Amino acid sequence: MTDTDTVVIGAGPAGLYQAFQLGLLGLRVALVDALPHAGGQVVELYGDKPIYDIPALPLCTGHELVARLLEQLQPLQPGLHFGHAVQTLQPTADGRWQVGTAQHTFTAGAVVIAAGVGAFEPRRLKLAGIEAFEGAQVFHRRQPAARFAGQRLVIVGGDETALEQAIACAEAHGPSHPVTLVHRRRVFQAPDELVQRFDALCDAGAVRFVAGQPNGLDLAEDGRLQGLQLLGPDGETQTLPLDALQVLLGLSPKLGPVTEWGLALERKQLVVDPATGATSQPGVYAIGDVVHYPGKKRLIACAFHEATMAAHAVLAQLHPDQAGPLLYTSSSTLLQQRLGVVAAPQRD
To answer: What is the reported pTM?
Structure first.
């Protein structure tokens, strides 16, 4: 169990900047996200695509934006808890909040929900019995190429992530252990440059492409997964031998348990006070794409503004005596000390 001042649910750009603003005000922060890394929708859906409307950054990619936000946040040292899907949000007897995941429990005086359009869950391959091999031979999230060294790897998918993984594994292991990519047809949702690299590896024998639709698993006598059954475009069935199966069919956002937390909703979005980010539950705030109020715009720049307003509202709730006057990073020694720009005074 972790006891902290605030819990921020969601580590996309809005959540990262929310953690920064809270930390800048001297509050302890636990940042929690269902994904195994920071970035949320920006990284998962358009990590390498250009973004042109971030203040003071004429051009950056989603990955670059997240990297800059993490760099900005690092001096404040929040608790980072990735791969933790929040399941429960409950009030405690002393007026605080308890946030629960499958692995951990957090207690805090305030909670800020920055869940975007929801937690991103991988689209799963729906084959009978596949759950038994999850995490051992079957993986629905991208894994390091080194994990599949010396193995017969089959990848199912046809988007940018699937091609990137096939290329990474092929380049790491070479023609001696070719990777097989399965998709319904040889048409990919990926940049031309990536497709060209994939085709070159196919020509070199490091990757094999097979058109088809998975329709069953082939098991060995000892119960181990040894093959993937495919229905081909010609209606014929074949079995691809394998040691490991990567299913990369994209991600699907799900609002999930947020709808069960007793918070006022409108059009599957949390209703908030735009001046503070306060929801219908005292001590629970929300910002970013998950919220609704009159005039709301789903823009990253707007989420940064909402994060600032929510941080000051949280400070006023938790420490009313510290709610003013407003300090500026350009002139406040206290804020500069928190950011590590100037050294803190030595104590005797």
So the answer is: 0.75
